[in-house]
Amino acid sequence: MTFVDPYVDSDSGTLRNLPGFDVAEELTLFEVHTVALRAQQLHVNPALIESTWDARHWMAVHRHLFQDVYDWAGEFRTINITKGEHTFHPADPLGHAVDYVASQFQTVVGLRSPSADELAEHLAVVLGDMNEAHPFREGNGRTQREVIGQLADLHGHPIAWETISAGDNVEASIASSTDPTAFALLLRNAMATAASDRRSTDP
User: Fold this and answer.
1) pTM of the predicted structure, to 2 decimals
2) Looking at the DSSP assignment, which residues form a beta bridge with residue 15?
3) pLDDT for the residue numbered 84
4) What HEC string does 76-141 produce?
5) Ranges of the chain with pLDDT below 70
């Protein structure tokens, strides 16, 4: 029996999308632009997402970011997905993985005045587990960064994501499957950059 990806348009081969793009490159350009605008909305007004710090929070962030692109924005995937040779958490028991990661959100929220180094260690574990769960058909990385960024902002240690290259992010993602703190150094450096930038602009 041939597998049919329900998220892909059978005629064009692109992900099913609200604007109706049938060329992958055009869809990507639209997605990058609209998601960036939606992310900026959250940065200006974080209250657009209720801070429940559970699975609903994770879903709400994805829904907000991708609401202009996919009708399944904010919904967890129903199929297994792979990237390269790596298979992410199976779709069938996905709810258990998501709830486990969400419990880590709450642990981080409950930290008392953590240093940047301490927070980076905690967030590295959460980010690695979020990546392994990979609960959405598309848009996991951007949703992860948004949620992790919110947790970092909550404790006064913002992350300068632009300082983390795509290559370093991929390497850390791969390494995190066996090393829970693989993202820690990248996060520490990105926090240090954000802190330095903030000091340089303070009057």
Assistant:
1) 0.94
2) 8
3) 85
4) CCCCCCEECCEECCCCCCHHHHHHHHHHHHHHHHCCCCCCHHHHHHHHHHHHHHHHHHCCCCCCHH
5) 1-2, 200-203
Pick from 41, 40, 17, 12: nearest CA to 27: 17
Both structure tokens of 56? 């609903």
| pLDDT for res 3 | 80
Q: Are 109 and 154 in contact (CB under 8 A)?
A: yes
What pLDDT is attached to residue 68? 98
pLDDT of residue 200: 67
pLDDT at 203: 59
Helix-then-strand count for the chain, H and E: 7, 2
Backbone angles phi, psi at 86, to 5 degrees: -95, 130
State the amino acid at position 58 in one-letter form.
W
Question: Which residue is listed with tokens 């642990």?
Answer: 107
Domain boundaries, the chain: 24-201
Q: Is domain 24-201 in CATH 1.10.3290.10, yes or no? A: yes
